[in-house]
Amino acid sequence: MVDAGSVLIVDDEAIAMRNLAHVMRKEGYRTTALEDGQEAVALLRRQTFDVVLTDLRMEGSDGMEVLRVCKQRAPESEVILITGFATLESAVEAMREGAFFYIAKPFRLDEVRKVVREAMQKVHLRRENRDLREKLRRLQGDGSIITRDPGMLKLLETVRQVAPTGCNTLITGESGVGKELIARAIHQHGGRPEGPFVAVNCGVFSEDLLASELFGHEKGAFTGAVVAKVGLMEAARGGTLFLDELTEMSLSMQVKLLRAIQEREIMRVGGVRPIAIDVRFIAATNRNLAEAVSLGKFRQDLYFRLNVITLSIPPLKERRGDIALLADHFLKRGVERMDRRVRSIAPEAMAILREYDYPGNIRELENVIERAVALCNEEVITPQHLPDELRIQVIRTFRGRGDRPPTLEELETDYIRWVLDETGGNQTLAAEILAIDRVSLWRRLKKLRMLSADGDGAREPPAAN
Question: Which fold has domain 6-131?
Fold first, then answer.
């Protein structure tokens, strides 16, 4: 039998409570009914319900407290408020706090049935979407985060552990290492992946513009404010706000951000009423934040508020094993976007890519591959399609060659040897990684004198059917 869902009914009028409970049970819902608001609040701290149907005015804990506790403990639940003292102000406040609907007494039972049914459908749809995303995540891994580096894999495991906690998180790392990708992974693995993910670069706005972007403004708040504007913190309600380049924020803006984090409310520029926010904060910086605090350039109290969890992303030069994986990913994406016929990257070109230090990290590698795809009119990217600065740096810093620049044959030999080491000598797998067939690999090994001395592989292997 399909579970229709669970309903909690809270009303200090016993007759009204029993009537509603009877109706909900006839609709097939698992129903719990209470006359006391405080008892309902205590129950909601221990147990979740799909839909909560509560009177607004009650002794002790009123309907607004029931609403707040329910949304705090179970954000996916929906709350419907019923009151015989309906006012515009109370309706607006209820909706602002996340109520699904606001019903005025006297009401028709058909209306209540319809509203509860719609609320239940929303809960079930949200749950189905969440379950589907989870299944896709298990099938696809972390999607755009491509790595086999042990340090990065450990970092991703930490992401999975801390994401459901809702803790504020600080992400550090050089520019271009993928801080926003990690922030999005935290959001997706968190308790409310269906909520919005809003990103803002704090370094591209002046102080006044940043205040308007984050907090919004009222009509007439300043010259040019011809209409009211919802800020990014309001837009991120129920989701995540990602603050990139945090250290570029002025000290006065840091004070405003600190208050928003502490009080969980904001004031629009030119506004007079506080607005409640329910946002997870993730901040990122490419600078040493602790050093900025010691120099007086960043507030210590804000640092502690954001630094509940710290995730440090290593630069690409410290995870060279990912370069081939990422290059292949960017190659396929570039070919699809530009409709080119490029199929692979030549081993000697890949060897150069692996030796480069990438001061711009993953973003720079992506640009390098995109440029190569655009310039290549053949099926294979070769060293001539790579930027001059890559080849020059590799010549200057090539390890183990002294002052003599390496030949293309030496680069190719080193790269093929590395791939064979990574695959445990499996030539079939190595050929797949190199994007060539096994016969072509055998011929390269023979040409480069890399076949074993005992004659292993001396015969040309049969071509794949």
Answer: Rossmann fold (3.40.50)
